[in-house]
Design goal:
InterPro entries: NAD(P)-bd_dom_sf, Sc_DH/Rdtase_CS, SDR_fam. It comes from Spirosoma liriopis. Belongs to the short-chain dehydrogenases/reductases (SDR) family. Keywords: Oxidoreductase. The chain has one domain: NAD(P)-binding Rossmann-like Domain (Rossmann fold, 3-Layer(aba) Sandwich), CATH 3.40.50. The chain contains five helices and seven strands; from the N terminus they run E-H-E-E-H-E-H-E-H-E-H-E. Helix 1 links the parallel strand 1 and strand 2. The longest helix has 27 residues. It starts with a strand and ends in a 7-residue tail after the last strand. The relative contact order is 0.15. The model has no long low-confidence stretch (mean pLDDT 95).
């Protein structure tokens, strides 16, 4: 049986690049997003769920458990960006971003990590950002959520050290995905989604005795 990876927000951008890389290496992939219409192919197990709600996370967990297969890799990639400043962003922005960007990863991890601990095997990737370490104007609640996600990654790393479960925080800078459509900047000014996917794969393939705790990746010419 092929090893199994679970990727949230896995239908496009960095998430999809990670799915494609791991499937190419022999994994089957549970791919979750709000819509998975048209997603098909060898090794792909698409599942539609809105992870901005606890109920959505629960439906995904129920599906994963129904497969009756161990999860070897979890990639908490679901996220949303809403620009604004703390002083003037719309009411509810903080709650929406924290629930989606942090809460989904928290509850999904809690639902899957017990089996990893029992097997003393597993790898959890948290899709953080350069916004996890660098505050910027107009980042508002998005920066807060990404700082929190990096904090959760570090807590998990400490908790899971004795249990053989690895935790890696990915902190990519500007990556050329659909979120940058319409930009006037040249594509070569950005990283490729495959760069992040390749980095995740490299971290996964290390020996059992080594873990990459954090991967900070920026475009060669620096932040935008």
């Amino acid at each position: 049986m092929n090893p199994l990876i679970v990727v949230t927000g896995g239908t496009k951008g960095i998430g999809r690049a990670i799915v494609d890389r791991f499937v190419a290496e022999g994994f089957d992939a549970v791919v979750c997003a709000r819509s998975v219409d048209g997603l098909q192919g060898p090794g792909l197990l698409p599942f539609a769920a809105d992870l901005s709600s606890r109920a959505g996370v629960t439906t995904l967990l129920d599906y994963i458990h129904s497969l009756n297969r161990p999860v070897d890799v979890l990639v908490n990639n679901t996220g949303v960006f809403l620009p604004g400043q703390i002083q003037d962003e719309a009411d509810g922005t903080f709650e929406q971003l924290m629930t989606t960007n942090v809460g989904s990863a928290y509850h999904l991890t809690r639902g899957l990590v017990g089996d990893m601990v029992a097997r003393k095997k597993g790898h959890i990737f948290m899709m953080c950002s350069t916004a996890s370490i660098t505050a910027y104007t107009n980042g508002g609640s998005y920066c807060i959520s990404k700082f929190a996600l990096l904090g959760m990654s570090r807590v998990l790393r400490e908790e899971l050290k004795p249990h053989g479960v690895k935790v890696t925080a990915l902190l990519p800078g500007a990556t050329f995905t659909a979120s940058w459509e319409g930009t006037d900047l040249p594509e070569e000014r950005f990283m490729k989604a495959s760069d992040v996917a390749d980095s995740a794969w490299a971290a996964y393939t290390l020996s059992k005795s080594a873990v990459v705790e954090e991967i900070l990746i920026r475009p060669q010419l620096g932040d935008l």
